[in-house]
């Protein structure tokens, strides 16, 4: 699995490269700004890009803008953005920014190397990986007011959150110590409650759930 990494903090950049290389990834390039990132992606055509959101020169959203451009122009490349903060806008822009796999993870997750690399591989395979804190924000905001989420049991809300993170039925069952049959029953109820079509494809169902959560957020007052 070939990857290009964009991160302006040297220690974190080298740390990500070390974790991925140790897990069998071929790290083609590590760069410190968004312009370099796009040049290296064009040069190497990797399967995956991992990039910080805030990068030089302004440290606002250069990395995100580069990630979105890569998603639009090279949809076969999986894109994972990492950040220190949860911003719902970032998840929304990534969701609508292209067709390939994508992820939005908080930097503190990188310390859990096993989970981090599993999320990275899921995105490289065309799937989705959203940080649990990002999902918590989406679910909490979507639950305000007269939301269909109010018809879900606490367990079903847990399952919904794990679905939005990009997890398969098998992974959800393992984490919640349930049978896969029980997870299927919970997801069926979730589809009914949210008015979503049943879809056996993991990636499409994740996108449907995330889009519902985004759309259900009440407007700011």
Overview of this structure, please?
With 221 residues, this protein is of the alpha/beta class. It contains ten helices and six strands; from the N terminus they run E-H-E-H-E-H-E-H-E-H-E-H-H-H-H-H. The chain has helices spanning 10-22, 34-44, 62-73, 88-96, 113-124, 132-142, 154-165, 169-176, 180-194, 202-215; strands at residues 2-6, 26-31, 48-52, 78-83, 102-106, 128-130. The protein has a six-stranded parallel sheet with strand order 2-1-3-4-5-6, sandwiched between helices. Helix 6 (132-142) packs across helix 10 (202-215). The chain is globular and about 50 Å long. 38% of the residues are buried.
What's the rounded overall pLDDT mean? 88
Strand content is: 5-15%
How many beta-strand runs?
Answer: 6
Distance between the termini: 46 Å
The percent range for helix content is 40-55%
């Amino acid at each position: 699995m070939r990857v290009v990494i964009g991160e302006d903090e040297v220690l974190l950049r080298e740390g990500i490269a070390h974790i991925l290389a140790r897990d069998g990834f071929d790290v083609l390039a590590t760069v410190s700004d968004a312009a370099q990132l796009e040049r290296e992606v064009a040069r190497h055509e990797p399967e995956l890009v991992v990039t910080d959101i805030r990068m030089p020169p302004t440290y606002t959203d250069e990395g995100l803008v580069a990630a979105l451009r890569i998603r639009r122009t090279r949809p076969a490349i999986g894109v994972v953005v990492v950040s220190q903060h949860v911003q719902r806008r970032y998840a929304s822009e990534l969701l609508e920014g292209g067709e390939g796999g994508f992820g939005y993870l908080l930097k503190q997750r990188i310390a859990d190397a096993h989970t981090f690399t599993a999320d990275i591989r899921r995105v490289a395979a065309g799937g989705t990986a959203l940080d649990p804190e990002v999902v918590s924000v989406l679910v909490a905001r979507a639950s305000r007011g007269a939301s269909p989420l109010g018809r879900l049991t606490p367990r079903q809300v847990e399952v919904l959150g794990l679905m939005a993170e990009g997890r398969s039925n098998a992974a959800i069952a393992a984490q919640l110590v349930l049978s896969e049959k029980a997870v299927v029953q919970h997801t069926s109820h979730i589809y009914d409650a949210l008015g979503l079509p049943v879809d056996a494809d993991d990636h499409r169902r994740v996108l449907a759930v995330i889009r519902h959560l985004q759309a259900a957020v009440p407007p700011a007052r």
